Amino acid sequence: MSFERSADVISPVYQTQNTELDSNIQNEILQTKKWKVLTGTFLFVLILSLIFIWTRESVFQSQATIQFSTVQMDAGKSSSTLLLDSLQNQQRLTSNRILKAVNYSIRHNYGIESNVELLSEMLSVELQSGQIINLKATGSDPEQLKPILSAWLDEYLKAFSVENDNNNTDSIIRLSNMLKALEEKISEQKVALVNFSQQHDIVSFERNENKILNKVKSLEKLLHAAEQDYLNQQEIVNRINLANKENSLIVHPKDEAAIAMIRQNIVNIENQLAELSEKYTRKYMEKDPNIISLQKSLVNFQDQLEKDSLLSHTLFVKEAKNNLLVAKGKVSLLSEQLNTLNKEAQTFNHNLKEYVRMNDSLNQLVTQAQGLKDSLLEQEMLQVGKPKFTVLEYPFVPSYPIAPNNQRDSLIALLISAIAALLALFLFSYIVRQKQPSTVFSNYTVVPNVDISEKRQRLNQQELEALENQTAQVLLEQNAVIDNFRLLSTDECEKLVNFANKQGKLVILLVLSGVNIKELLVIKLKDFDIETNTLKVNGAFARNIALTNEFSVLTEEVMKYKSTQDSLFDNDYSLDELAHLIANSAHDAELIEPETISLESLRHTYLTYLLEQGVKLNELEKIAGYIHPTQLALYRKNKIKSALDHVEANTIYTMH
Fold first, then answer.
1. Are residues 431 and 575 in the same domain?
2. Which tens digit of pLDDT belongs to each residue from 183-213?
3. Looking at the structure, do residues 152 and 257 belong to the same domain, yes or no?
4. Residues 6+ apart with CB under 8 A from 529
């Protein structure tokens, strides 16, 4: 499609009405499709479900009931015996032998073709009240259920009658002979057990068993404690030997409190001398009698510490070696006693195990004999009263099915169809959302043969005015941020340093040398190189920062009483606390509006100092560390007359 030359460009705002119209049409089409998906899925699933439900075969069931009973039985045992026999009969009814006989009978007598597997699924047994047994046949052809169930009942009654008529005389004779032989063996076992008990004095061993075992357990506990004591003493001796190799002293635990008190006195005096050294000169301290007295006390405490530590170490070494020898002897003695008792216990345990084994064997023989007696009694009772079956209900042809319940299944199918329709609707909506392209408007639309020059000029004018207002607002915000940072003069910086305490001086000199405010919290003494008078800053903006001589003097004083792994500052200050140090110094220096002087003011003063030398904006981070791009943009108004490389700039703020 081609356009004529007379084409104008309009803003997308003029397409709003047409776009809304197209959107409404698409929504109506989409809603129609959703209704089709919903109703189509619902009807499809429902129709298939109903066809499956109403075309299923009906299931019929026929039933026969028999009663198992015995005559002349003991009233006390009749209930449990009948229940056990009924359970056995229930298992026999579904045995493979009976089912094969039923399959053969229905094929030859009724002409019904089947197999054992199919019969095992059709036939089931239900036990009621211990004596009543229900035989059930289930299938789709009601005419076949009666002959199948009748054949099953006849075959089982026939098999039961054959088994019941068998003579039990042979079983009784066999059980009697087995019981006689077993009783003779029990008598021999009893004699052997009595002889073994008398020979090995098992009765006395049984009386002394707890004593021996208790002695063993007590000795084991004592031995364990002795071994633990020996290990502890050996550990103490090893520590002493290691200390001797390292030419160090170990203090006896009893003397630790006294020596710790001496050390605390030394630390207190050293702290007092350190505080006095900050207030007074060395000449004054050499003449002041109180200070001289403190120094003498320090020397006396140091001599006393050395003397007491050496004496405590000597006594501790002697005591540890003696304790080690005593612990070692105790372990040896207890080990010998424990070995002797273990041998006695082993001998006793061996004889006792043999006695227990013989006694268990005798009990097993007695149990077997009792079982044979029970079996013999059962066989004799069977001779007196034989069990029998009575048919209470004969098989019949069922007139109505027991399953399936088509009405209930139809309601379930209706519910499943509704759920499937909703799932299909959700899936369709998801696919539509995935395929639908995102709405993207171009900046302009070409419309042929439409004269809208006046409207276009008006829109362009409005856009320009809005852009100018936005730019003016951004410039005002940037100038406001710059104005919040006070720019300090050289005299103000010098007064801050002069009136600040030692911690405040360290903070001010670091910031005015190029350290980022957040980097103040992670600086360690190990980062300073006193010989080159520089600070090594690690991290993403790693660099070496040159420091003033005054700062090096302060650092050397801190290193006298702190480790190189410690922080530069005496306390774990936060940024707010460091800011308070600066504000306090400003108040003491009586500067104008001291509340406006902060760490950010010092940082702003230092960055301005670098820019005035001619350092480029993008070169500032190489000297002063990380600067947020928004903050860096605030310095664009600084006019740089001649560009200067960062290595040529003076990175230490000059105050003299």
1. no
2. 899 998 888 888 887 776 666 555 555 566 6
3. no
4. 535, 536
| pTM above threshold 0.70 | no
Instruction: Tell me how far apart the terminal alpha carbons of the chain are, to the nearest angstrom.
Output: 79
Backbone angles phi, psi at 436, to 5 degrees: -70, 125
Contacts 24+ apart (CB under 8 A), 51-59: 53/404, 53/406, 53/409, 53/410, 53/413, 54/406, 54/410, 56/404, 56/406, 57/140, 58/140, 58/401, 58/403, 58/404, 59/138, 59/139, 59/140, 59/401, 59/402, 59/403, 59/404
Q: What is the dihedral of CA 475, 478, 482, 484, to 10 degrees?
A: 110
Confidence at residue 452, expressed as pLDDT on a 0 to 100 scale: 42
Tokens 């061993």 label which residue?
A: 205
> Do residues 14 and 150 both lie within one domain?
no
575 in Cβ contact with 511 (< 8 Å): no
Domain closes at, from 374, 397, 426: 374
Q: Which alpha helices (H) appear in 134-201, and where do they start and end?
A: 142-165, 169-200
Q: Report, in this order, helix, strand and coil percent for the chain, each rounded to 5.
A: 70, 10, 20
Residue 168 clears pLDDT 70, i.e. is over it: no
Is 208 in the same domain as 99? Answer: no
3-state SS assignment for residue 394: coil
- Tokens of residue 376, six digits: 């013999």
Q: Which amino acid is residue 160, in one-letter code?
A: F
Phi-psi region of 514 (alpha: psi -120 to 50; beta: other; left: phi over 0): left
Same domain, 244 and 331: yes
| Boundaries of domain holding 11 | 7-56+407-435
Q: Report yes or no on 317 lying in a domain.
A: yes
282 domain-assigned:
no
b/e per residue 561-588 (b: at least 16 CB within 10 A): eeeeeebbbeeebeeeebbebbbebbeb
589 membership: H or E segment, kind and range = none
Q: Are 217 and 341 found together in one domain?
A: yes
The answer as to whether 174 is a domain residue is no
149, 166, 183 - which closes a domain: 166
Mean pLDDT of 40-51: 92
pLDDT in tens, 142-159: 888 889 988 888 888 888
What domain count does the chain have?
A: 4
Q: Tell me the CATH number at 533.
A: 1.10.443.10
- 28 and 73, same structural domain? no
Average pLDDT score over residue span 374-395: 74
Residue whose structure tokens are 């040529």 = 648
**650 located within any domain:** no
Q: What is the pLDDT of residues 59-106, one digit of tens each?
A: 889 888 888 776 544 444 456 665 666 667 777 788 888 888 898 889
Mean pLDDT of the chain, nearest integer: 79
The verdict on 220 and 310 lying in the same domain is yes
Return d(Cα 348, Cα 350) in angstroms, integer.
Answer: 5
DSSP H helical segments within 55-140, as ranges? 78-93, 96-109, 116-122
- Give residue 278's identity as a one-letter amino acid code: E
Selection from 508, 469, 510, 499 nearest residue 624 by Cα:
510
Above 60 in pLDDT, residue 107? yes
